[in-house]
Design goal:
The protein is an alpha/beta fold. About 50% of the residues lie in helices and about 15% in strands.
Length: about 280
């Protein structure tokens, strides 16, 4: 494989979902041998238990390292310390450290307000045991007042001890390139791995993008909207668009690609095949 690949999953909510996830990570482990699988984490306890169970299962059964997301908002230092200790006992070596969103109805943000505070605490509590990834936003975090403030926030996370970053997904490689240029200007030198979202369902993609601030370029929105209920057409066109993006990223010499797999293996495997990401 020319560059490392990783995949992100979310904890299943049902037995059927658990079976679908199991099929996905087992198939991906055999087909592309990713560097790691990450698992999302709900703030304030919403999906934390399922995250723990999913991380244990994936690392135990797939032979691929698991990297749990860790959201600090609404959490205490003692609670985060206990989670870190538990992961260390399981020989988990990677953490994706995030601020997260304050759950509806919860007024107290807890002991951590920002992700850089979580990263600093991980280093304080666990030293260099964990390889720590943080989030990056080439198209600017939706809650940031401006681009410079967002870059300053990102730099604080790196200075607190982050080893690398994973970007929010994007469909304009120019946004990623400009973000790298801005980081170089600020002497931020950690690997910044682009996040890639396969396009399989336009309505779902539009909803996610509106929530997280990822931009779907107007030309792409209009082309996807034109397919209407033709899901096969959306998937075929979406695959062409994203595989072109992946090839551009590989040609640009990115340090890796992180796929938002949505607990499915097929779209990721096809993208890796078309972009030459599966070694002989």
């Amino acid at each position: 494989m020319p560059i490392p690949v990783s995949c992100e999953f979310f904890p299943p909510k049902s037995d059927e979902g658990a079976a679908r996830l199991r099929e996905a990570y087992q198939t991906l482990a055999g087909a592309i041998a990713p560097e790691y699988f990450s698992v999302t984490f709900g703030a304030g306890g919403s999906t934390q238990t399922r995250t723990f169970e999913t991380v244990r299962e994936i690392q135990r059964d797939s032979g691929i390292p698991a990297a749990p997301h860790l959201s600090c908002i609404g959490s205490s230092r003692e609670g985060i310390a206990a989670i870190l200790d538990d992961y260390r006992e399981q020989d988990i070596r990677r953490i994706v450290a995030l601020r997260g969103d304050l759950p509806s109805g919860m007024q107290d943000p807890g002991d951590f307000r920002y992700a850089n505070e979580l990263v600093a605490f991980i280093r304080e509590h666990s030293g260099d045991w964990f390889h720590v990834e943080v989030a990056a936003y080439p198209e600017i975090h939706p809650q940031a007042p401006n681009a410079e403030a967002d870059l300053a926030n990102f730099k604080r996370k790196v200075e607190a001890g982050a080893d690398a970053a994973i970007t929010q997904y994007f469909y304009s490689i120019e946004a990623y390139r400009r973000f790298l240029d801005d980081c170089e200007r600020l002497n931020i030198d950690v690997p910044i791995v682009p996040g890639v979202m396969p396009i399989t369902n336009y309505q779902q993609l539009a909803r996610f993008s509106d929530m997280c601030g990822a931009d779907i370029p107007r030309w792409l929105r209009k082309r996807l909207e034109a397919f209407g209920d033709d899901l096969d057409g959306v998937r075929a066109f979406g695959h062409d668009v994203v595989s072109d993006l992946c090839r551009e990223l590989v040609d640009a010499g990115v340090p890796g690609i992180h796929f938002y797999a949505m607990n499915r293996s097929g779209p990721v495997i096809r993208l890796c095949e078309d972009a030459g990401l599966i070694g002989d």
